[in-house]
Amino acid sequence: MDFALEQDQKDPLAHFRGRFHFPETKTGKPFIYFCGNSLGLQPDTAEQYIKEELDAWKKLGVDGHLKGKRPWLTYHELLTHYSAKLVGALDREVVVMNSLTVNLHLLMTSFYRPNGKRKKILIENNAFPSDRYAVQSQLKIHGNHPKEDLMILNPDQGETITTEWILDCFEHHGDEITMVFIGGVNYYSGQAFDMEAITKKAHEYNCLVGFDLAHGAGNLHLKLHDWGVDFAAWCGYKYLNGGPGAPSGVFIHERHLGKSDIPRFEGWWGHDKSTRFQMPDEFVPTTSAEAWQLSNPSIFSMAPLLASLELFHEAGIENLRKKSEKLTSYLEDLLENELEDEIEIITPKSIEDRGCQLSLRLKTVIPNIMDELHRQGILADWREPDVVRIAPVPLYNNFEDCYQFVQRMKKIVRG
Ligand SMILES: *Cc1c(COP(=O)(O)O)cnc(C)c1O
Fold this sequence. Notes:
- This protein is of the alpha/beta class and 415 residues long.
- The chain folds into 2 domains: 2-30 and 317-414, Aspartate Aminotransferase, domain 1, CATH 3.90.1150; 51-313, Aspartate Aminotransferase, domain 2 (3-Layer(aba) Sandwich).
- The protein has 13 helices and 15 strands.
- The protein has helices at residues 2-10, 46-60, 64-67, 77-87, 100-111, 129-141, 163-173, 195-204, 224-227, 299-315, 317-338, 369-375, 399-414; strands at 20-21, 32-33, 42-43, 94-97, 120-124, 150-153, 177-183, 208-212, 231-234, 248-252, 343-345, 358-362, 378-379, 381-383, 387-390.
- A 7-stranded mixed beta sheet has the order 4-10-9-8-7-5-6, with helices on both faces. The protein has a 4-stranded antiparallel beta sheet with strand order 11-12-15-14, with helices on one face.
- A hairpin with a 3-residue loop joins strand 14 and strand 15 (387-390).
- The model has no long low-confidence stretch (mean pLDDT 96).
- Bound molecules: pyridoxal-5'-phosphate.
- Pyridoxal-5'-phosphate (PLP) binds at residues 99-101, 128, 130-131, 183, 187, 212, 214-215, 235.
């Protein structure tokens, strides 16, 4: 406990904890909130940011598009730079719009281009169900087989899929695969993939590479542009704290921008800004990722995400990642020392191969585990059949949370 308190005292990011609202137990104590990988907490400025837009609508009506404090016409641009910094992209490679699965389809419309024998999509085992449905339906739309043309990377080491194994897969099947689509951090095991190595190898075989960064954005220190990734998308409500159903971000590498021959769904919000309101018949795409926008966006949903992205910008993702590595390693040490008979950690041990999340497999069945956790003042996530996912988030969790979690977990598993 002393160690945890000392670490919290030394933590230069400790004050960000006070910038978030924590849900409380019946007795009015804050929960240990380890669910930022599912729904991030509410930033203290979120309410004000939404209210400002309600007020602008109330007082300005249609004039809010151009004359508000943050004009709606360009509101989404306020999110662009912060998002680009978070994922290591140029501003023009990023746009915030829609929700995640919708964006996956918009991106795959452009980047899944089967050609004769090269028609397979490579995904990871235990991909998030929505991602799997999305790729399967893309296969079907192109007249391909949703099972036979889907290549699934199975783990070769426990729950882990090693990089060597993935690269090896290209050596054997590279000429059948046309697109790779992997969760940058797998939601179930918490494994972070070597996106740079995968992209490099896939490109040697002329495959396009996309990552679902729902569990990567705001968690890892990403460098999408430098790694040469073709496209990526993430949601705004997990690590990014934008609130339930918050808009998603997308990344499209510069090399694919400003191309007229790329297949793409088109809408007026993707049209060149200088002539958009002349309402021409012909679609002229903007030369940034904004060309993938279809509609004018929901301002009220972007407002809380903006509030949160400002906090990320203030804290800096490099600093957050540094703290995160220590925080998760501390939690891991405690679990290994104090609960090794009861819990197996299925997340990779090596720091480069994971984000902040640890996935815990319970060695014995504990009936109503989620109720028990709740009663002990813990909000965590349960995945059938036997995995508890916990995410100490560096923006608002601390070392004491980790310590308390393990003490309470001991009470639960030992009855
Ligand atoms: C959370 C998550 C989703 C959720 O998709 P929505 O379209 O936002 O509902 C999809 N894919 C992955 C990998 C996720 O982690």
